[in-house]
Amino acid sequence: MEIRPTTEKDLDVFVDTLHTAFGRFPETAAEDGSGVWWSAFEMDRGLVAVTADGRTVGTAAAYSFELTLPGGAVVPAPGVTAVGVVPSHRRRGVLNAMMRHQLDELRARGEFLSVLLASEAPIYGRYGYGPATYTQRMTVPRHQAGFARPRAYGTAGGAPETAPGSAPDSGSVEVLRRSECGEVLEEVYDRYRRAQHGALSRPHRWWARGAGQPPVAAAPRYVAVHRDAAGVPDGYAVYSLDGTTLGVDETIALDDAVFTALVRFVLGHDLVTEVVLKHLPPGHPLRWQLADLRAAQASETDWLWVRLLDVPRALTARGWSADGELVLDVTDPFLGGRERLLLTVRDGRATCVPTDREPNLSLDVADLGAVYLGGTTPGTLVRAGHVRAHHPAAVALADALFRTDRAPHCLHWF
């Protein structure tokens, strides 16, 4: 079997093989190849597994994304996708061979991390990926969608002051069709993803070709566009109705007041029995804003998985919330690596160098990927038996170092 890179001439075979692996049939693309979820494939970043008799039996690919890290750094992040092996050739080492080839190739390109969305949770941990962000699906019955009365607090001068989260909105909301506001969606999303750690870029190619899921795909949707007092777009909610259920594909806002205004708008829609907000960050305060705390029913799932390819570069690229020193003993079972590193953080920046000091924590690279963006604490993984703490104080220090002010969140599907 041979693992080889792809070119544009391999696109049709690549797509057919991938769909066979998942037991599906390809949709029909437009004449220019756009309008389908795979139309943004970068065929110079793809791989195929080919048998000795020339049959293509496996696929893997990567997109060129950017990822926003804690502290605000925006770094290259190849998004691994389209990984599949046709049913007749599973459990023969094809997937292992492709993943090893891909990781070696990413390292050769100088990448220090990669990301993916896992179709099945048990698969990718063995290749060094850890679940780094989570997303929440929240359902609110329309008859329980009333907001709580704003809290008022006295000031030093005695005048009441409204709590920030319930302050009146000075902007406006306009309803447009998806086909009318593609540039607005692209611009607002790009501003948002640069400020939200854990978020991925959506290259212009994606928007132009309608690749992915709504609102990137040009499927019919209504868009509630929020504009500030000066008329500048600073948020949107993309939605559609299925019977009497209003489904919100995503809500993007540049601050909490805009988010609240958009949620008030969708929850106030007529002829609706329930509103389903499909992507909210964990810990979002919406349920506390409702008059009935129990009205919102939420479920949570993992979303973006992170794989560190160069641990020192990755740890020094992100920002940090506390000062301290931590010795990490990091193993990489799939690629056969092990390194002991001294992480030193001062004033939000880190250095990371090899050391022979005794470790504070021992963990594998998948668990380090899981805590990298702040979506899971090292202490959680210690309690779960994934990470070994060699000193009791190491857990509290690691939690303080990796902590972020808000949960990381990724909306982008790929």
UniProtKB/TrEMBL annotation:
<dbReference type="InterPro" id="IPR022902">
    <property type="entry name" value="NAcTrfase_Eis"/>
</dbReference>
<feature type="domain" description="N-acetyltransferase">
    <location>
        <begin position="1"/>
        <end position="153"/>
    </location>
</feature>
<keyword id="KW-0808">Transferase</keyword>
<dbReference type="InterPro" id="IPR025559">
    <property type="entry name" value="Eis_dom"/>
</dbReference>
<dbReference type="InterPro" id="IPR000182">
    <property type="entry name" value="GNAT_dom"/>
</dbReference>
<dbReference type="GO" id="GO:0030649">
    <property type="term" value="P:aminoglycoside antibiotic catabolic process"/>
</dbReference>
<dbReference type="Pfam" id="PF13530">
    <property type="entry name" value="SCP2_2"/>
</dbReference>
<feature type="compositionally biased region" description="Low complexity">
    <location>
        <begin position="158"/>
        <end position="168"/>
    </location>
</feature>
<feature type="active site" description="Proton donor">
    <location>
        <position position="124"/>
    </location>
</feature>
<feature type="binding site">
    <location>
        <begin position="119"/>
        <end position="120"/>
    </location>
    <ligand>
        <name>acetyl-CoA</name>
    </ligand>
</feature>
<comment type="subunit">
    <text>Homohexamer; trimer of dimers.</text>
</comment>
<feature type="active site" description="Proton acceptor; via carboxylate">
    <location>
        <position position="414"/>
    </location>
</feature>
<dbReference type="InterPro" id="IPR041380">
    <property type="entry name" value="Acetyltransf_17"/>
</dbReference>
<keyword id="KW-0012">Acyltransferase</keyword>
<dbReference type="InterPro" id="IPR016181">
    <property type="entry name" value="Acyl_CoA_acyltransferase"/>
</dbReference>
<dbReference type="Pfam" id="PF13527">
    <property type="entry name" value="Acetyltransf_9"/>
</dbReference>
<comment type="similarity">
    <text>Belongs to the acetyltransferase Eis family.</text>
</comment>
<dbReference type="InterPro" id="IPR051554">
    <property type="entry name" value="Acetyltransferase_Eis"/>
</dbReference>
<dbReference type="InterPro" id="IPR036527">
    <property type="entry name" value="SCP2_sterol-bd_dom_sf"/>
</dbReference>
<protein>
    <submittedName>
        <fullName>UPF0256 protein</fullName>
    </submittedName>
</protein>
<feature type="binding site">
    <location>
        <begin position="91"/>
        <end position="96"/>
    </location>
    <ligand>
        <name>acetyl-CoA</name>
    </ligand>
</feature>
<dbReference type="GO" id="GO:0034069">
    <property type="term" value="F:aminoglycoside N-acetyltransferase activity"/>
</dbReference>
<feature type="region of interest" description="Disordered">
    <location>
        <begin position="152"/>
        <end position="173"/>
    </location>
</feature>
<feature type="binding site">
    <location>
        <begin position="83"/>
        <end position="85"/>
    </location>
    <ligand>
        <name>acetyl-CoA</name>
    </ligand>
</feature>
<dbReference type="Pfam" id="PF17668">
    <property type="entry name" value="Acetyltransf_17"/>
</dbReference>
